[in-house]
Here is the input.
Amino acid sequence: MAATVVAHLELDRPRCEGHGLCEEAAPDLMHLDDEGELVLDVTDISEQDLEAARTAVRVCPVAALKLA
Amino acid sequence: MTAMHPLPSPRVGAPGRIVIVGHGIAGLTAGDTLRREGFSGELTVIGQEPHDPYSRPALSKAMLGDLSTPSPGVVTEVEAQYLAAPSADATVHAGRSAVGLDPEARTVLLDDGGVLAYDGLVIASGARARCFTDSPDEYTLRGLDDARALRQRLADRPAVTVIGGGPLGMEVASAAREAGCEVTLVHRGQPMRRHVGDVLAGLCTSAARDRGLHLVDASVTRVRRDAPAGGLDIELSTGGTLRAEVVVSAIGDDPNDEWLADSGLLTDGRLLIDDWGVVAPGVVAAGDVAWRRSGPGIQRRALWTDAIEQAKVAAAALLHGRSASPVSYAPYFWTEQFGLNLRICGEVPAEVTPTVVDGDLAESRAVLQWEGPTQGGAAAAVNFRIPIPKLRRLARPAPAAA
Ligand SMILES: Cc1cc2nc3c(=O)[nH]c(=O)nc-3n(C[C@H](O)[C@H](O)[C@H](O)COP(=O)(O)OP(=O)(O)OC[C@H]3O[C@@H](n4cnc5c(N)ncnc54)[C@H](O)[C@@H]3O)c2cc1C
Ligand code: SF4
Here is the structure.
């Protein structure tokens, strides 16, 4: 059974500056591609991924990620 | 060195109470990490500033950008920089300060007379800006209120004199120029050199001059209020005096450690952490407030990623003691000024000329690499979009075959 989704991860792409600190915090959820653009690999966040997602949101210095 | 007694691990015993002093990025990251590591006890965060958490680096960048008064309903740059709320299930006392600490009794004293008992304490009270005077014409930039006040003043397009040519001074000077102010920057030697080395500092300085920044090569010995006329007199090491309408001082910061003065935890007036962020049994620290041993000396690296990495390690050590991993990360730093966007991994050796890996420095768009002595080198992206993990790899080139 798929894990219950407790939140959605959103990226405000124009704000993102590609610092990649979020990737370091949550490498299973997102990565920077070869052009330095952030790719969200997981946007439906389960309870299990919630703390990692929160940490990724936290470390972004331009507040480009949001959990809703 | 004091032995570290870890708190009872949440898996084996009573969860206990953890108090975090400071709700900047270090305090918030520590809170997140504690929960992530399974801490299920009481978490209390004390934060002097009454505001919700926000991004401090943005204060001197995006937040000083567009100075027009926002239309109602439009999300302002200031609002857009708010960060996520403190960690789940934390009690947050915003607008409260810690004024004392008794590490024997394990209590924190608050400014309203309250006493908080803890089993574990995270000290993350950050730092504050230095200044010369208490004049309303002298500004510093450390918190959200400072940024709001400076924005408002810049909107009148005064002539601005910035004191200090580090990243903060240069970012403010850049924003003030962008806003249409006459801007003079006073700094002894080449601005930015200490932070980014000769080559990049040269690039920053010429970009600044091209955009109309007046540079004065001197150090400031004193700033005097000129009461009747308003404004300030800046006395220079070179003998002259500069008259200024508005001064922005960007001359460094002092750690917020006064509340620890009687705690017995300061060493020669400094809050020293080890590689786990440990200060004393049950007490860890992280971020701008903390000094760390580095080779023969000690240093305080007051930067965003340092605060984050130190906070992660410190929170884990509070729960698991020194069986947790010690701090280990490559420095990362960025700045935006005078049309230049710099990202730097590693520590740039000031006098070494970098190799241009991609792009062209003459066009201010390049990827640079420095061969470092022992701990690897450094790499920088100048107006160049590159995945930061790739930049990190460039900063740590594979060791040459013996
Ligand atoms: C304008 C500006 C721009 C910057 N730009 C960059 C950049 O581009 N890149 C970069 O890497 N770094 C940058 N930095 C540095 C970076 O922002 C800091 O290193 C980082 O924010 C430090 O986090 P901290 O949590 O340790 O401290 P702080 O963010 O200072 O947080 C400490 C908190 O503790 C509170 N506090 C203080 N004393 C007490 C007390 N006694 N009781 C309770 N609460 C207390 C304070 O009010 C504050 O909210 C910049 C800093 C400034 C000021
Ligand atoms: S940390 Fe923020 S700016 Fe950096 S890549 Fe992630 S979302 Fe983008």
The helical segments of chain B are 25-36, 77-80, 144-154, 167-178, 193-210, 304-320, 388-395.
